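EI: anyone free to look at a 86-residue chain?
SC: sure, send it
EI:
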Amino acid sequence: MHFTAYFILSLLVTVALKARPRSLLAVLGLIAAGGVLEIVQGLIGRDADIFDELANTLGASSGWILGWVLIALLTSRVLVGNRSPL
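SC: here you go
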């Protein structure tokens, strides 16, 4: 669940920011927020788990990479190039 949630959040952020370099800052912010949430869980009596943060990080990284790939494909000349009529 952690991987999927952070994957989707990261993918949405990356696409919304059109895969600009600042999208990496947003994804790093997501990862940091996940770490803070894990720490807070430990402080309020729930179990903080390093593997949850690992899943958050892997999901966010994967979503960011897929976002860059999707934006690159959609803006490449191969997909949106001019086609001459026959």
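EI: The longest helix spans residues 50-75.
SC: 👍
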